[in-house]
Amino acid sequence: MGIAKLFLAALAYGVVTVALFGDPAQPIGLATFWSDRLGIPYWRQVAAICVAISALVFALPRKGKIFDLLRWPIFTVLAVILPTLSVGIYADRIRHQGILVLVPDSVDESSFFKSIRKAPADFQSFLHTAAIKDCKPYAWSYRRLAFYEVPPNVAVNVLPLAWINRCGIVRSDRY
Hints:
The chain crosses the membrane at residues 42-60, 72-91. The protein is an alpha+beta fold. It contains 7 helices and 4 strands, in the order ααααβαβββαα.
């Protein structure tokens, strides 16, 4: 692979990962070090299939020097976007099903795509989705694929102020 192809592929990777993840290292971390933080069944297989589909760009017949130069950047963009979109849509669907099961009084949703930009960077201060039911605060866990009860000491820092006031949520020495 020529230096121009490598440069264009690296540039494409940087642009796409910053746009989707906020940081070029984020998708690598999510796929390796933090891969256990996503409890969705078969997400790795879905991602691998999407990368394999992205590789089909190499099966296309050569169409000239421009396409030959752009083949690696096109593969790179597709290899980032396809798995991210597929797993993200899958994750959002599961999270939405969790909301339907909980039947909360109020919900404050963040998409999976916002979560991949915020969650690992904001240690314990970003909720993927917050919900309140009978004045008990809940948060969504992509690891457990379920809502968990949020302790009052945390809830006062992360829930919408209207919920805190409506339910009288205050710090507690219990937690």
